[in-house]
Design goal:
9% helix; seven-stranded antiparallel beta sheet; iron; binds 2-acetamido-2-deoxy-beta-D-glucopyranose; 311 residues; single chain; mainly beta; Jelly Rolls
Length: 311
């Protein structure tokens, strides 16, 4: 028998406007929940061209970006480029430093791009590793269907006997995207030592008799080996939510925007490294992305055509 974890805390994420065509529902990384080690931030974002996240640095942590609707182009100072389409993810370890741009692709209908971005802290001994990233395409993600009410995309980890692609990032986190129909329930196991939370993108959930509304983040205690919840029978459509877990780190978190270290001195040093283009930020000198002013679906198709011709 698996024992369910109890709720530590739950609240609904409030939308913050981030300029024209962009808003973010941040759950982790707010006054309500500064962090939840190893997790530093979770944003449920909606962004529409010409808004976007042009050239900016990162240090000392990893990001997991999951695109739900629309397309996001990315480009970093090592010369890597790519496009994430609905259902695709990118795992990026910033390590000792990276500068990159993430820009929504302007499509014919200019629909906004919607997704989730998770920030995961790196253990002190990996903070100065070389930057690393990989994309995970929708087709690579196995799906478990334990019954006719439950579908889970096994992005990272194992659900109902279905295992994900392995070694996605330097530091493993478990990541599941669940869709559960009214009257359905799920149970997801995690290692006992992991911190686990879920975030509801659509619909509601009932966790141990407590109703959780859309956009709620639910944080669990480490008092069991699984999390479980159900979707009320009376609800109109299905619910969709991500369930995420990771090994907590026993180290201080000192964060200054996109730089995350374990001491103030190291933050100061990283800031100087970025300013002067050294110790990991050499390639930042004089670099600017091609996509920072925007990118259209036509540009993407042309680029992909060129890449095919080179093969
Ligand atoms: C469920 O809630 C009850 C109180 O309503 C509490 O006594 C019990 O510990 C909870 N169980 C879990 C696993 O959260």
């Amino acid at each position: 028998m698996v024992s369910p974890r109890s709720i530590l805390k739950a609240f609904a994420a409030i939308a913050q406007e981030e300029g024209v065509g962009a808003h973010v529902r941040r759950s982790i990384g707010t006054m309500k929940q500064r962090n939840f080690p190893p997790f530093l931030m979770l944003d449920h974002f909606t962004v529409q061209a010409p808004a976007g996240f042009p050239d900016h640095p990162h240090y000392g942590f990893s990001t997991v970006t999951y695109v739900l609707e629309g397309m996001v182009a990315h480009e970093d100072f090592t010369g890597s480029t790519g496009v994430l389409r609905p259902g695709d993810l990118q795992f990026m370890t910033a390590g000792k430093g990276i500068v990159h741009a993430e820009i929504p692709v302007r499509t014919e209908d200019n629909k906004p791009c919607v997704g989730m971005q998770l920030w995961v802290d790196l253990p002190q001994e990996l903070k100065n590793c070389d930057p690393l990233y990989r994309d995970l395409k929708r087709e690579e993600i196995p799906i478990a269907k334990p019954n006719d009410k439950v579908t889970v995309k096994v992005i990272a980890g194992e659900a109902y006997g279905v295992k994900s692609v392995q070694n996605l990032a330097k530091v493993a986190v478990d990541y599941y995207d669940y869709e559960v129909a009214p009257g359905g329930s799920f149970i997801q196991e995690f290692p006992k030592s992991y911190n686990v939370f879920l975030y509801i993108m659509q619909g509601g959930l009932e966790v141990n008799g407590t109703k959780m509304a859309q956009y709620s983040a639910v944080f669990f205690d480490r008092d069991g080996d699984a999390v479980t919840a159900k979707v009320p029978e009376s609800q109109k459509g299905s619910s969709r939510f991500v369930v995420i877990g990771g090994q907590p780190l026993d180290q201080p978190v000192v964060q200054h925007g996109p730089f995350v270290a374990t001491s103030r001195e190291k933050i100061y040093e990283t800031f100087m490294n970025y300013q002067s283009g050294q110790n990991g930020f050499e390639k930042a000198r004089g670099w600017s992305s091609k996509i920072r002013e925007g990118i259209t679906e036509k540009d993407v198709k042309a680029q992909e055509g060129e890449q095919r011709d080179e093969l």
